[in-house]
Design a protein that fits this description.
binds calcium ion; binds ligand C2E; TIM Barrel; alpha/beta; 26 helices; 16 strands; rod-shaped
């Protein structure tokens, strides 16, 4: 096995300098002994020179083998060459007894015999790794001693020669045994090293996998930013640190405006690319080491800590809003993507990560509510609003079921005759804890908790009940209006629900008017088909808050709208504002030319009513005539109103009915 041979070579080379040095010393000692016993002779000097030359050559050959990397690449050749060197030295020593005349191994030259025997034994003891090298050195020496003993022909010499032969046998066996031990040691060492290597490799693999898993666990795979899990831990850690060092931790929550519709229209891969671009933009803008994370979907977060954290966070937000004005790749086109940002700070707004997140979310919601593309900072009012919103959402279902949410009605009056021209149903809820809950709050909460259909069905049922009661109160053929918010058409089938409710109550659809804002009219995709169905079924359609938006006139005509309800901002103080008068008269003529009824709402003073009548408005609604009121009170109001002669009614214009 090359690795074992390599170890054998290394073992020999390690001991090579000392082997050669010992050899040289022994050569000099041998010279001294010979000179002492036999005098200095030329042949002894020649022998010494030859032996020393061999040692030098052996030294050179080892250096050569090392330099040519033969030692490492061809260990077998290296062993062979070194064995040749050892054999040369061995034969040189073996020649010594033959150089001396009358060599007397057990008399004068006994010291030489001891030296030679010691050399042979030393070589076997020293070269344990590779048997041939020890044996090619020692066996020639021992054979030479045996030969010189046998040559004497006496019994003691014979006996000693016999012992030496046995010694050769012992040397050979011992050498082979030590070599086997050496080889098995080397194999064990190699195995251990290989095992250690593979353990190290496995360990490195595990470490690499751990780093990868850690990255996977902490990074958002799409954008490469920190993910929510890492963000949560980091934010808690930052707050814990801030408690000790008495610092601020500022959190920005960033939301991509209308991302959902981009995703839906351009596809998910375009959405992903967009999120990556936004991630890069965040990285480019926020370079002070603040943590940037993607919390999921289109929501990103930045945690700013350290000195002047608040100032830096505000700067980040402003720069992000500025950067978001640059167009960004969005599918096949470039678009400007708006960002909304909410800011909250520890300890000012929240005491822990969870509270801080909730506060930043509320600020974000506020930014969106105020028209998006802006940053809002948290303030305690937002918390109150959110808590109120939460309670409303939580209690709404029960309130609808129990009838706590109900319709109040506001009469509509014919400006010329002062006769009742109709009613509008307006949702009312007196919450036991929150007090009066405004209709937009109720309608929004219903949208959030998916109760829009049940809410409108509840009001529609109240509308039907009033519609059926009206003939008994002496009022025939007037409509009762019901508000339907534009978003509802996308949430459920308003047409199905209304047909069901009016069917259950046996009410003629032509006595029900549906008030929708221009927004719904503008979105024919969603509302168009349902509005057509309602119109075909006989329901009256009115455009609420008319004048505030941009209704498509062509579409209005195609839908066969019955009424335009001019927004109350035009009615307010109309007597004083000439521009409003001009606008109203323009809207009235528009209505006339399209054969649409016109009703104006929000009439509060007799002066305004008089002007409006002069401008051509036929029907009006407002506090001047009556406030919205519950059915019981409405019945009394109707009776009272009906009992008044037109003249009396005129006189009572200014009295305001109801709460
Ligand atoms: P809107 O449909 O424009 O309703 C008219 C609002 O003006 C009502 O407010 C009414 O109380 C108020 N109002 C009537 N006369 C006067 C007046 O002379 N002066 C002033 N300042 N205000 C007057 P309300 O009841 O708070 O409703 C607000 C909005 O909530 C409504 O505006 C409507 O958009 C929505 N809403 C009300 N009830 C419902 C409902 O049942 N369903 C849906 N979807 N929306 C509703
Ligand atoms: Ca209305
Ligand atoms: Ca209105």
């Amino acid at each position: 096995m090359p690795a074992v041979m390599q170890a054998q070579v290394d073992d020999i080379i390690d001991g090579h300098p000392s082997t050669l040095a010992l050899n040289a010393i022994n050569l000099l000692v041998a010279l001294c002994i010979i000179t002492f016993n036999h005098g200095l002779q030329l042949r002894t000097l020649v022998w010494l020179a030859l032996a020393l030359s061999i040692l030098v050559l052996r030294r050179i050959s080892v250096n050569y083998l090392r330099g040519r990397i033969i030692v490492a690449q061809k260990p077998k050749s290296a062993l062979f060459i070194m064995s040749l060197g050892a054999a040369a030295s061995g034969f040189c020593w073996a020649a010594l007894p033959f150089l001396i005349d009358d060599f007397a191994p057990l008399a004068d030259d006994a010291a030489l015999i001891i030296l030679l025997g010691g050399l042979a034994a030393g070589s076997v003891v020293k070269q344990i790794g590779y048997t041939p090298l020890a044996l090619v050195f020692s066996i020639p020496i021992l054979c030479s001693i045996i030969f010189s003993l046998v040559r004497i022909g006496e019994w003691p010499e014979y006996l000693l020669a016999g012992c030496l032969m046995m010694l050769i046998y012992v040397f050979v066996r011992r050498s082979l045994w030590t070599e086997r031990m050496f080889v098995s040691n080397q194999l064990a060492r190699l195995e251990a090293t290989a095992l250690a290597d593979s353990l190290t490799r496995a360990n490195n693999d595990i470490l690499r996998q751990n780093t990868r898993l850690e990255a996977l666990a902490n990074r958002d795979t799409l954008t490469g930013l920190a993910n929510r899990m890492f963000f949560n831990g980091h934010l808690s850690g930052d707050i814990a640190r801030a408690v000790v060092v008495n610092e601020q931790v500022v959190l920005l929550i960033i939301d991509v405006d209308r991302f959902k519709s981009i995703n839906d229209t351009l596809g998910h891969s375009a959405g992903d690319t967009l999120l990556c671009d936004i991630g890069n933009r965040l990285r480019d803008t926020i370079t002070d080491g603040s943590l940037i994370a993607r919390l999921g979907g289109d929501e990103f977060a930045v945690v700013v800590t350290g000195e002047r954290a608040m100032e830096r966070a505000r700067n980040h937000a402003n720069r992000l809003l500025l950067a978001s004005r640059a167009a960004i790749r969005c599918g096949a086109t470039n678009s400007v993507i708006g960002l909304s940002i909410g800011l909250a700070a520890y300890p000012d707004h929240g005491a822990n990560a969870e509270e801080l997140l909730a506060c930043a979310d509320m600020a974000l919601y506020d930014a969106k509510r105020l028209g998006r593309r802006q940053m809002r900072e948290f303030n305690p009012d937002l918390k109150r609003d959110a808590e109120r919103q939460r309670i409303i959402e939580q209690d709404l279902e029960k309130a609808i079921e129990s009838g706590a949410v109900t319709a109040w009605f506001q009469p509509q009056i014919n400006l010329a005759t002062r006769d009742i021209a109709g009613f509008e149903a307006l949702v009312r809820w007196q919450h036991p804890q929150l007090g009066f809950v405004s209709p937009p709050e109720i309608v929004n909460a219903a949208g959030v908790v998916h109760l829009s259909d049940r809410l409108t069905a509840r009001i529609a049922a109240d509308v039907c009940l009033l519609s059926k009661r009206l003939p008994e109160l002496g009022i025939k053929g007037v409509t009762v209006a019901l508000n339907v918010s534009p978003r509802e058409f996308a949430l459920y089938s308003v047409a199905d629900m209304l047909e069901r409710v009016t069917g259950e109550h046996g009410v003629d659809p032509s006595l029900i008017e549906i008030e929708i804002t221009e927004e719904a009219i503008l979105d024919p995709e969603i509302a168009g088909e349902q509005l057509k169905r309602l119109e075909t079924a006989g329901y009256k359609l009115a455009v609420d808050d008319f004048g505030m938006g941009h209704s498509s006139l062509a579409y209005l005509i195609s839908l066969k709208i019955d009424r335009l309800k001019i927004d109350r901002s035009f009615a307010q103080d109309v007597a004083r504002f000439e521009t409003n008068q001009k606008l109203i008269s323009a809207l009235v003529s528009l209505g006339e030319s399209l054969s649409l009824d016109i009703i104006i709402e929000g009439v509060e003073t007799a002066e305004d009513a008089a002007i409006l009548a002069r401008l051509g408005c036929t029907t009006a609604q407002g506090y001047l005539f009556a406030r919205p009121m519950p059915v019981k009170q409405l019945e009394d109001w109707i009776t009272e109103h009906q009992n008044k002669t037109p003249l009396k009614r005129k006189a009572s214009h200014l009295s305001v009915a109801g709460p």
